[in-house]
Automatic annotation (TrEMBL):
Domain NADPH-dependent FMN reductase-like: 3-144
UniProt GO MF annotations: oxidoreductase activity
Tree of life domain: Bacteria
Broad EC category: oxidoreductase
Name recorded for this polypeptide: NADPH-dependent FMN reductase
Keywords: Oxidoreductase
EC number: 1.-.-.-
Lineage: Bacteria, Pseudomonadati, Pseudomonadota, Alphaproteobacteria, Sphingomonadales
Amino acid sequence: MSKIAVVVGSLRAGSFNRQFAEALIRLPAGEGHEFTFADIGSLPLYDQDDDADQAEPVKALKGLIAGSDGVIFVTPEYNRSFPGVLKNAIDHASRPYGQSVWAGKPAGVIGVSIGAIGSALAQQHLRNVLAYLDMPTLGAPEAFIQWKDGLITPDGTIGEQSAGFVGGWLENFLKLVDRHKG
Ligand code: FNR
C-alpha cells in the first residue's frame, strides 16, 4: 500500500482536471492505495519573508507531502505553462532553504486540457521544475489528455476509451513509487 498525494493545478469548482483526478484514483490500478488531495487553494501567495513562520495551510501541505510515498500532479495548461497556483504550492513546500519536502518523492505528471495538445507544454514546464526539486518523475508513458465527452462517465469513472491507457499510466507510476520505497 502506498500513500499518494494528489495535487491538482486548478481551483475551479467544475475543473476538468479535478474531475479527471477523482476518476483516476478510482481505477482498479489504484485499489489498495491511499490517495489524498492537497489543498492548495488555501495557501497564501508565497512570500520569502514568511519562511520562518509558515502559515497553517503551508504546514498542512508540507505534512501531507512529507508523509506520502509519491505525488501525482494533475495540471491544466495556462498560456502554454502550468498555472500559477500550482507553482505557488510548489514554491511553498520547497522552503525554507534546505527543508523542501519534495526532494526524493517520486512524481507522476498528467493533465487535461480542452486544447488538442492536452496540456503537453504545461507538463514539460512542470517536469523542468520537478527535476530541479530532485523528484524522480515517471518518464513514460506521457499522458496528454484532451477533454472530450465521455472521458469521464456520469458515475465519475474514466470512460472506456481511455480507461486502459490511463490505468496503465497509474500502474507504471505506482511501480515507480515502489522502486523508490526504502
Ligand atoms: C487556458 N486554456 C488553455 N488550454 C490549452 O490547451 N493551452 C493553453 O495554453 C491554455 N491557456 C489558458 C489560459 C488561461 C488563463 C485559462 C483560464 C485557460 C484552457 C484550459 O485548458 C481550460 O480552461 C481547462 O478547462 C482548464 O482546466 P480546468 O480548470 O478545467 O481543470
